[in-house]
Amino acid sequence: MKVLIVFAHPESKSFNAALKNTAVSTLTETGHEVKVSDLYEIGWNFHVDRTNFTELKDNDYFKPQSEQPLGKYIQKIKDEQAKVTWCDMIIFQFPMYWYSMPSILKSWVDIVFSAGFAYGGEYGYFEKAGFAGKKALICTTTGGPEFFYTEKGRSGNYKRILYPIIYGMFVFTGMESYEPQVFFGPAHGTDESRKEMLKKYSDYLKDIDNQKFIPFNKSDKFEGQMMTLKENEKTNIEIIGDEK
Amino acid sequence: MKVLIVFAHPESKSFNAALKNTAVSTLTETGHEVKVSDLYEIGWNFHVDRTNFTELKDNDYFKPQSEQPLGKYIQKIKDEQAKVTWCDMIIFQFPMYWYSMPSILKSWVDIVFSAGFAYGGEYGYFEKAGFAGKKALICTTTGGPEFFYTEKGRSGNYKRILYPIIYGMFVFTGMESYEPQVFFGPAHGTDESRKEMLKKYSDYLKDIDNQKFIPFNKSDKFEGQMMTLKENEKTNIEIIGDEK
């Protein structure tokens, strides 16, 4: 596969960087092609606004959903979209900040996954969206220990915390999502425990062609004009919350 | 109350701006004091990195959690933290981007809700965190219609989508969270339907002193060293998913 790793940690000597480097070497060694977007290194410094574009259809009223499909992006944004087009699989590598991704990665998604490219326009949503056929993986780290992120732990199940990313960013744009690879509290571990985490991640990636996707409902499980879930089907939150 | 509205929409003539303006006028007229942080207007343009600080404890290895408690922030960040200290209530006003907040607001949270200020250090977490006693409200808009964001709709229950914000940002830092005020698909509505939405929001805010908080479990519902939920208590995801 062609794999794009989007890396979002401000320190190149961090454990997140080690996870990113592990992915690069493991995937390369097992015959995959890898590109990395190191967002801090490339100086990704945008939010959704007028400066994303070289020209605007409407200078008086800025509406991102109307401007994005016209594709009049500055070069730095086009470069990132070209990498997404190129790849078969995206990996988001980030430390969990506030039960979500760091703002630098969020801004990459807000801008690069644009209307008319990731969804909408000639594409639709979910299976009909722009990234249908691609695969996506979260690899993330937490500050707290694993029990904190269980169903009965203080934060609740980590997979439900990651639902807006997994379902909202990956599945919504047509991608299949692997089970997120979460490494709990590496900063509180030892060199030995961190090495084990890297090995675990490497082993997971070595077998990437056989890893399972989260079995979200496809369109055929919904019915009617309002696309309501059919009787007796599991809801998204039940599906993502299920233990492996 | 002293209310801080953090506003994150790139167009000052947008419906989100109208919601923000409605909050300013309604709250002011009913005797509250209001400050607004208009993130696009103030040119909020940061991510968590070395440039947040005037000096670093460790120049060779950048670890945000170690630098933040020292408080050596640039003035623009200190100004925002002063507004948070000042207020009794925070309102996040934003359009939903990717089942979450726009990156400009995420970066405000990543940086302003810092270790040693929002949580940790002399504070703890949840009821013992830095913002204990404060209240918080999400006011947001969606692109899609309401049925899309129900339990059996294609996206799932909107309150579960907003869980990382409500629980991860508000409750984690000690704040009580009101029920989120979500306005579905205003762009697909009419002038009349949008006026009704503004009136609904204004009516909600007029009665803010009597509005209910989401009844998350306090620490006394957890037990043991690992703070596991006691028998027969509802999990967070059940609590937030409950209909009003």
TrEMBL record, chains A, B:
Q: Which Pfam families match?
A: Flavodoxin_2 (PF02525)
**SUPFAM superfamilies per UniProt:** Flavoproteins
Record's keyword annotation contains Oxidoreductase: yes
> Flavodoxin-like fold domain spans which residues?
1-204
Protein keywords: Oxidoreductase
| InterPro entries for this protein | Flavodoxin_fold (IPR003680), Flavoprotein-like_sf (IPR029039), NAD(P)H_dehydrogenase_qn (IPR051545)
In the record, the note on similarity to other proteins reads:
Belongs to the NAD(P)H dehydrogenase (quinone) family.
Name the chain's protein: Nad p h oxidoreductase-related
Origin organism is Anaeramoeba flamelloides
